[in-house]
Amino acid sequence: MKRYIIERDIPGIGGMTSQQLEQAATKSNAALAKLQGRAQWVHSYVAGNKTFCVYMAEDEVAVREHAQVSGFPANKITEIRTIIDPVTAG
Q: What is the pTM of this model?
């Protein structure tokens, strides 16, 4: 599976309560279940009116299908080629 960053424009997401975020996560998980393992949600960052979601997926088509089924937009999808961190420096 490939790793992706999905940028989603969701007005008001940064001001949602924990209960509203829980409902959004439940909705996303239900959409993922319909994809039968073709995509997996790793985690998301909420910033202002956007989320930046990290997903593992077979391909970009699976990411777009999740967006369609869940109702959450996938405004920009970028495949992650590699990961670097402080350990990369040696």
A: 0.90
